[in-house]
Amino acid sequence: MAKKNKKFRVIRRPPEVDWIPESQQRYAAIDIGSNGVRLLLSKVITSGEFTVYTKESLVRMPIRLGADVFARRSISENLEEKLVFTMMGFANLIKAYGPRAVRACATSAMREAENGAAITERIQQESGLELEIIDGGAEAEIILASHVAESLNPEHAYLYIDVGGGSTELTLFAKQERLASRSFAIGTVRMLNKQVTKSAWLEMKAWVKEHSPVGMPLRAIGSGGNMNKLFRMSGNMPDQAVKYKSLVAIDDLLNSYNIEERIRILHLRPDRADVILPASKIFRSIMKWGQIKLIYVPQFGLADGLVHVMHHDFIGEQKLKK
Asked: Which of 217, 224, 245, 247 could form a disulfide with 163 if both were Cys (CB 3.0 to 4.6 A apart)?
């Protein structure tokens, strides 16, 4: 990156002194993914031109919906019960938190489940939470709502990579504009269940090579819980990019241990210790195909994007009232 853009920032931070908040808004966002369900309680503080997004609480339930869906095209009764009870618990936490807006979205597992619509209706009846089942394109748009493009060096092109349990979303940026976007049915849970075909890999490889810019350096932006963990394992400072060779070294380390050792020695959660290997393979493969040497990890996901969308809507409403 150019020197003035060396630090990758998603939000603008206020000066340390003489800063008095003019507005504080609370939001709640729920992300129902293929490998886990998350509730983010976030406060957005504004003063003049400064806006700070603060994660006040993040609750994660390791409900692996993708294990059912990608094998049987349906969510089992057992996981349905766990999901409904989780959403009821989240609803009570949200009531206690008192946000001005709430939004809940589900991605590939619920999207592909034959009983997804029926479960969505049950969740609304028993918890009062309205759940949206969104497609891959909408998922990418929401995640990118945190104005990532505004922080990018216009002299570089960027490939945004979001790896989930059921799919991988790729979005190409250049000159601070989104040029192309594609969702592939290649995800960590699918890979664990051996449900990713060779043709799917070849299709994603061809897309990356076709959309790799000529005459402009290509960098990556990584998203998802597994990439966040890989970033922490790199030992980099928050604003530093991870080098491709460092990602390869981490991948080699992970593969040198079995799953029990990854839990015991590397202190990975059991539901992270298995999916992190296929996630690492996806990131490594895409970076290799695109000859990408650096990947930035701003550590935000769908829930963070939902908060940004809700606050953006709030700002729009305030402007209309003036």
From this structure: 224
List the strands of the sheet with 218-223, edge to edge.
177-184, 168-174, 157-163, 218-223, 294-296, 242-243
Quick check: 140 and 171 in contact, CB under 8 A? Answer: yes
**Could you tell me if 230 and 170 are in contact, meaning their C-beta atoms sit under 8 angstroms apart?**
no
Domains annotated on the chain, with CATH:
21-134 (3.30.420.40), 148-302 (3.30.420.150)
Q: How far apart are CA 27 and CA 175, in angstroms?
A: 32
Q: Using 50, 70 and 90 to split pLDDT, how confident is the model at 155?
A: confident
| Separation in Å, CA 27 to CA 95, 168, 269 | 11, 27, 27
Helices and strands in the chain, H and E counts: 13, 11
C-alpha distances out from residue 242 to 59, 90, 281, 304, Å: 27, 34, 15, 22
Mean pLDDT in residue range 219-230: 91
**Secondary structure E strands in the chain:** 23-32, 37-47, 50-61, 101-106, 131-133, 157-163, 168-174, 177-184, 218-223, 242-243, 294-296
Q: In degrees rounded to 5, what are phi and psi of residue 99? A: -75, 160
Is 196 in contact with 204 (CB distance < 8 Å)? Answer: no
pLDDT digits (tens, 9 = 90+) for 103-147: 999 998 999 999 999 999 999 999 999 999 998 778 877 877 766
pTM: 0.81
Q: How far apart are the first and last CA of the chain?
A: 39
Quick check: 176 pLDDT over 80?
no
- Which one-letter amino acid corresponds to residue 60? R
Range in 83-87, 146-150, 231-235, 305-309 the model is least confident about: 146-150
pLDDT of residue 25 exceeding 70, the answer is yes
* Cβ-contact 162, 223 below 8 angstroms: yes
The answer to whether the beta carbons of residues 158 and 180 sit under 8 Å apart is no
Instruction: Average the pLDDT over 93-110 and give the result.
Output: 95
Say if CB 71 and CB 56 are below 8 A apart. Answer: no
